[in-house]
Amino acid sequence: MELLENAALILIDQQKGILHPRLGPRNNPEAELRMLELLAHWRDSARPVIHVHHLSRSPESVFWPGQSGVEVQERFEPLASEGLVQKQVPDAFCGTNLEVQLRSAGIGQLVIVGVATNNSVESTARTAGNLGFDTWVAEDACYTFDKADYFGNARTAAEVHAMSLGNLHGEYATVMGVKRILQAG
Q1: pTM (2 d.p.)
Q2: Is pLDDT of 1 > 90?
Q3: Could you state, in order of their start, the residue ranges of all structural domains in the chain?
Q4: CA 30 to chain centre
Q5: Of 18, 24, 6, the residue nearest 75 (C-alpha)
Q6: CA–CA dist 15, 73 (Å, integer)
């Protein structure tokens, strides 16, 4: 597998609200370090970076506009040359101009990282794959939280993460670690 020169890094929801304790236990405690490794590589190689920020429609959300949760974490502050997409639902393509931005720039390959694996990462990766983008998801550069399944069974963040990646791999995206992505280009 080869990482193309114009592959876009899609960095999802690295806002202060995602760090709120009420979201519960999470997995991948080093995910942000892996995200920052990829971000540094993309910036060093002058590849396109698109930051995706969530502005919720729900006042109960940690991403409700007008409060500190929507502010970007300083370590993920977008550069002036980088793209920014603001979404209101988990899927970064829904109701935004993300597809238009990518297609007009001739970008056909995406590397998706961020949170939450089973929410914004999975929904964005599914749409990207359905739209025909060569989509990669960095399994160690995303994370999620403990969650009950449909039947009320408690699932750990690691289980939720693994199932979400299993849903994506081979059908919508190629799932791999950051080390392998960096080796690809």
Answers
A1: 0.96
A2: no
A3: 8-183
A4: 15
A5: 18
A6: 5
pLDDT at 60 over 90: no
Q: Which residue has the tokens 């693994």?
A: 162
Give the β-pairing of 154-155 and 147-148. antiparallel
Q: How far, in Å, CA of 83 to CA of 80, rounded? A: 8
User: Which tokens in the block code for residue 159?
Assistant: 């289980």
Rounded distance between C-alpha atoms, residue 34 and residue 142, angstroms = 8
Domain 8-183 fold: Rossmann fold (3.40.50)
Average the pLDDT over 87-97 and give the result. Answer: 96
The chain-wide mean pLDDT, for the chain, equals 96
CA angle 51, 5, 2 (to 5 degrees): 105
Distance CA 142, CA 161 (A): 9
Q: Do the Cβ atoms of 133 and 92 come closer than 8 Å?
A: no
Length, in residues, of the chain: 185
